[in-house]
Amino acid sequence: MNGVHELVEQVYAAKTDAEAADRLIRQYMGFIRAETAKYLHRAPVEGQDEEFSIVLLAFYEAILGYEKNRGAFLSYASRGIRSRLIDYYRKERKHAKVTSLHEPVQEDEGDTMKIDQLEHPENDIEKSHRQSATKEEILEFEKKLQKFGLTFSDVADNCPRQERTFKACGRVLAAAREHPEYLDELLRTKKLPIVGLAEISKTDKKTMERHRKYLVAVLLAFTNGYEIIRGHLYHLSGNSKDTDS
């Protein structure tokens, strides 16, 4: 029981503390991967499988929405993950963008579709809570981006495509987090402090300039606890790693 109580305490701490949330997510990354594997029928590949990003986001949303009277946290998180994936597969099926979602999946009880494996009655209150929290954060972050002359489309178009470039942007983010004075400078001047960040992160200035919009958005996500947005930005590198811009 001590372990259960400890997890509940960690979850409650993570609701308002971004660093605590990061620690909890890292601690339960095995659970997150296992939940993703249930629906992929194989180990997920980070940066390639969209399901992994969705499950990661759903786990964080579970942290935000969890209350003690909703039962065990991991069971609650698992239900939220299932709900998120249902929404994702429904959307994919509706727009017919990913044909593999409709291919039969072998099971002991016969062939089914992926979405059919997931269907279940949803808790409208829990779903509404998740959608409300996500929408509120997205709108707030959108307003923040507008102050910097950016839109979500700008950020998505400016994401790095090569793995090495994505890692380089990660070094810039890590350096900015270790030296918050650069985050303060970004907020004050509304300009990316390329020279200083390039020096402390050992990253080429030209690379930073090419992906300035993406970097500004990622750094902004760490200035005011935009945890849901932050998770999305981490995985905006996309599946293609053959070209860069």
Keywords:
14 helices, single chain, mainly alpha, globular, 245 residues, disordered C terminus
Short description:
With 245 residues, this protein is an all-alpha fold. It has helices at 2-16, 18-27, 29-40, 50-65, 73-95, 114-118, 124-147, 152-157, 163-178, 181-189, 194-201, 205-210, 212-221, 227-234. The N and C termini lie far apart (52 Å).
How many runs of DSSP E, i.e. beta strands? 0
Order of helices and strands: HHHHHHHHHHHHHH
Strand content: under 5%
Number of helices: 14
Judged by helices, strands and strand pairing, the structural class is mainly alpha
Rounded to the nearest angstrom, the radius of gyration is 19 Å
Unreliable residue stretches: 96-113, 235-245
Mean pLDDT: 78
Biggest beta-sheet profile: none
The level of helicity is 55-70%
Global outline: globular
Intertermini distance: 52 Å
